[in-house]
Design a protein that fits this description.
mainly alpha, 5 helices
């Protein structure tokens, strides 16, 4: 016989999952925004890690996904999931927990849709222009003198 979970536990779990979705969303946005700021700072300071191919590729991919969703009229899945879990928890969209309200207030603003479109497309353009002026290192390319075997001496 299957025992059904405690309803209070389920409500708390759905609230937690909603807060988790907002936290992941904040992390995603932070990766794009702070990543770009660090790329500029690292470019000016000569930090080589900002030219890491995989960092730069995932950075471009992150804002590219957002821009694609915006152009195609697709709602962000993280927002959809957060709202779904809030509904299951019986919570308002802004969240009931302190963390949920705090993180939600960092992400969501009551602007006209064209403002968000402009922000997303401008951010994508900035990332692309930065790729041109501060290009990443190509992956799997050995630098001259690194990892190469010494020349062979002639036999005899």
């Amino acid at each position: 016989m299957f025992l059904s979970p405690d309803p209070d536990f389920l409500i708390a779990m759905y609230g937690f999952l909603a807060d988790l979705m907002v936290a992941i969303h904040v992390g995603y946005v932070s990766y794009v925004v702070l990543g770009q700021l660090l790329i500029w700072l690292g470019w000016a300071a000569g930090w080589q890690w900002v030219r890491n191919f995989w960092f730069r590729a995932t950075h471009l991919l992150a804002i590219g996904i957002v821009a694609f969703e915006e152009v195609m009229g697709i709602r962000c899945p993280l927002t959809v999931w957060e709202e779904h879990f809030r509904e299951l928890a019986g919570q308002p969209t802004t969240g009931e927990t302190f963390l949920g309200r705090l993180l939600h207030s960092l992400l969501f603003y009551d602007f006209q849709p064209w403002v968000f479109t402009t922000i997303y497309m401008s951010t994508l353009a900035v990332v692309l222009v930065t790729l041109i002026f501060c290009p990443p290192r190509r992956p799997f390319r050995k630098e001259v003198g690194q990892g190469s075997a010494p020349p062979l001496a002639p036999l005899g």
